[in-house]
UniProtKB/TrEMBL annotation:
Residues 7-20 have a biased composition (Pro residues). PROSITE patterns: MFS. GO terms for molecular function: transmembrane transporter activity. It comes from the Bacteria. The chain crosses the membrane at residues 66-84, 91-110, 116-136, 157-176, 188-207, 228-250, 270-289, 296-315, 321-342, 354-372, 384-402. This is MFS transporter.
Length: 415
């Protein structure tokens, strides 16, 4: 009797390649890094003018360190994006954090040595770190595979901004007088320490690598993408949302003090404004998923317009505070919605340059607003500033409505 042939086992299933780190892990690291990196701007913005008054012989140059930070951020968006495209986001983010450490140390040394130019150099260097931190929201979209979850990922990372809005001012309070002979130097040493703490978090990121040139076929020229209606609408919404917020937030404390309110009342109004900017991030992504990117972006712009109308209604403390809270809420919905809209404009191989152009436009506008808000407030007045923003909002709302109709007529479900 012949032996039975040996049983044939089914072919082994090939072992799939190792999966990238879980999206939730990346998002958690990005939230933590956003919390630390986002704390630097409040330190610079709250103390830059005071240190400028202390170090500069020209009172008109007191706010120059803050303006140079905003300018440095705007100018850094393009080289930061180039580095991300060539070397990957993690490498660029690590370099950004190193620049954050260096900027805090240089600014602190400027205070120690009573050197105004050195202090300005430190705040300007912080702009590169700021550009990288602002890009964390785009890294969040790279961490999720489903386009329907991108808005929620953006919103989740922006929650880190709420934590940063608490960390930054508290660091100023705790450390501004830690070195009695050099007031405020301790806060900028702490800024460097926060950036140093972000380094191990960024090292733990496992993000998709940049597309290789050999694979990145069909890449459209940037000028062609910038002319598409999708990009025009997304960029316009981002520029108007962020630009108006920065402009009015900068002018509001000066307007409040000019109307007889105290510096403490102005500071409290800004604190409520910052909380309103980031607190909705817990639900903004869900709102976008339910109602659509364009509708939530439009709602944000409407709230910014409502803040202007409340400011025009009177000069009492309630008018200023209510206006600032509405401004913060509108910024959150408008800017996160505009960021989500931007993801519709590019292919994976085009993302770096499109995101860079968008952020250059947005933060370039913020830099101009930072330089010009005080002068325009002095020449035109608080009411004129708030009335003048309404036509800009109306224009972007018209663009959003038109793009929504075009998307529906083309069978899109993203409106």
């Amino acid at each position: 009797m012949s032996a039975l042939p040996p049983a044939v086992s089914p072919p082994a299933t090939p072992t799939p390649p190792a999966a990238p780190a879980a999206p939730s892990r990346n998002l958690g690291l990005l939230v933590a890094a956003q919390s630390l990196g986002g704390a630097s701007p409040p330190i610079i913005i709250s103390l830059g003018g005071l240190v400028g008054q202390q170090l500069s012989s020209d009172p008109a140059a007191a706010t120059l360190p803050v303006s140079l930070y905003q300018l440095g951020l705007a100018l850094s968006t393009l080289p930061a994006a180039w580095l991300m495209h060539r070397c990957g986001r993690r490498t660029a983010y690590l370099l950004g954090a190193v620049m954050g450490v260096l900027s805090g140390l240089v600014a602190a040394q400027g205070i120690v040595h009573s050197n105004f130019l050195m202090f300005c150099l430190g705040t300007a260097l912080a702009g590169f770190y700021g550009a990288c931190v602002q890009s964390y929201r785009f890294a969040a979209t790279d961490s999720v595979s489903e386009p329907s979850r991108q808005a929620q990922a953006i919103s989740r990372v922006m929650v880190g901004g709420l934590i940063a809005a608490i960390i930054g001012p508290q660091v100023v309070i705790w450390t501004r007088d830690t070195l009695p002979m050099t007031p405020f130097a301790g806060s900028f040493y702490s800024q460097a320490l926060l950036a140093l703490m972000a380094l191990p978090l960024l090292l733990g990121l496992r993000l998709p690598p940049p597309p290789r040139k050999a694979v990145a076929t069909g890449v459209r020229p940037l000028a062609q993408i910038a002319r598409t209606p999708q990009f025009v609408v997304a960029a316009a919404a981002g520029v108007v949302s962020y630009g108006l917020m920065a402009f009015l937030m900068t002018a509001a404390p000066m307007a409040m003090v000019g109307c007889g309110h105290s510096v403490g009342e102005a500071a409290l109004g800004i604190q409520w404004h910052v909380l309103a900017m980031f607190a909705p991030s817990f639900v903004t992504g869900k709102l976008i998923a339910r109602y659509g990117k364009r509708r939530i972006t439009a709602l944000g712009l409407v709230l910014i317009g409502a803040s202007g109308l409340m400011a025009l209604a009177g000069l009492e403390l309630t008018h200023f505070w209510g206006s600032l809270v509405l401004l913060g809420l509108g910024w959150n919905l408008g800017f996160i919605g505009a960021t989500a809209l931007l993801t519709e404009c590019y292919r994976p191989s085009e993302r770096a340059k499109v995101q860079a152009l968008n952020d250059f436009l947005v933060f370039g506008t913020v830099a101009v607003a930072s330089f010009g808000s005080g002068q325009l407030l002095h020449s035109a007045g608080w009411d004129a500033i708030n009335a003048g923003m309404l036509p800009l909002i109306a224009l972007v709302l018209v663009l959003l409505v038109a793009s929504g109709r075009a998307a529906r007529s083309g069978g899109s479900a993203s409106a």
